[in-house]
Write a structure and sequence with these properties.
The chain is α+β, with helices and mostly antiparallel strands. It has two domains: 53 residues; 176 residues, no CATH class. 19% of the residues lie in helices and 36% in strands. It is built from three helices and eleven strands; from the N terminus they run αβββββββββββαα. Strands 4-3-2-1-11-10-9-8-7 form a nine-stranded antiparallel sheet, with no helix packed on it. A two-stranded antiparallel ribbon has the order 5-6.
Length: 263
């Protein structure tokens, strides 16, 4: 009996040990969009001067995926001003794995990131020479649809010159940008001081489709954990049953001697 208790204790200890081991997750940088998907942005709010030309006159912007090849994504940007005239169109190229993009002077990319990134995953090349990571993964509601999103929250300070904070929200499955909030405070005496605030968010899109809702994302991301725990539980239960059967005392009563009558 003591041997059975010892083996059962060891088996339970192994179960707890293996269940607590976090499998190493290698980050794969793959596009989550397909050609023809798009996001339209509106709700444009600008206070003070804006880093985007004519942002305070912009009515809407639209990003459409025109090509996906390997790690490379090509986007087309269009839009319109509040007076009804069309905004200049622009082609955007970016690489999901390196983070390179042609939209900014520094060669970074902010409009689309890799699919299925998780908290603490690095976003390559968003800002060169800086390590940018996903700060949190959570569920938010966009266009009346609950989506699992990745939050990037950056704060950068240049003492005596400028303080900046950026909040960017990305759809986890597609990697497309859903919302932006920018705060810039200029503190330098060499240029006019002041505050700038700008924000915009998705007002229409076709990227949600049948993937609406964030429930399946957790199971997909943690399938290795779930499978490991299930396998260990099965092994321990089977081992315990086998041990118990081996140690189970026999319930068969020994045959009784038949009495014989002497004659």
């Amino acid at each position: 009996m003591q041997n059975l208790k010892l083996k059962t204790t060891i088996a339970l200890a192994l179960l707890i040990f293996f269940a607590s081991i976090a499998p190493i997750r290698a980050t794969d940088y793959n596009p989550g969009v397909t050609t023809g998907q798009w996001v339209k942005y509106g709700n444009m709010t600008v206070v003070g001067s804006s880093p985007i030309p004519d942002a305070n006159q912009t009515d809407w912007m639209k990003l459409e995926v025109t090509d996906v090849s390997g790690k490379n994504i090509t986007l087309h940007m269009s839009g319109a001003y509040k007076n009804g005239t069309a905004a200049p169109e622009q082609g955007i190229a970016c690489n999901i794995e390196t983070g390179w993009g042609n939209m900014t002077d520094y060669g970074g990319n902010v409009y689309v990131i890799a699919t299925n990134l998780q908290q603490n995953d690095v976003i390559p090349g968003m800002i060169p020479l800086m390590t940018i990571t996903v700060n949190s993964t959570e569920t938010r509601t966009y266009l009346s649809t609950d989506r699992t999103v990745n939050i990037v929250n950056l704060t950068m300070s240049s003492p005596g010159f400028m303080d900046q904070s950026f909040l960017m929200v990305y759809d986890k499955i597609s990697g497309m940008l859903l919302e932006v909030n920018v705060n810039i405070t200029i503190t330098s005496e060499l240029i006019p001081t002041g505050n700038t605030y700008m924000s915009f968010s998705a007002t229409d899109t076709n990227i949600f489709g049948s993937n609406a809702g964030g429930g399946a994302g957790w199971l997909q991301d943690n399938m290795l954990y779930v499978a490991t725990i299930i396998i260990v539980i099965i092994v321990v239960v089977v081992a315990a049953v086998i041990l118990m059967r081996k140690k189970k005392p026999s319930t068969t009563e020994p045959p009784t001697k038949s009495s014989t009558t002497e004659t």
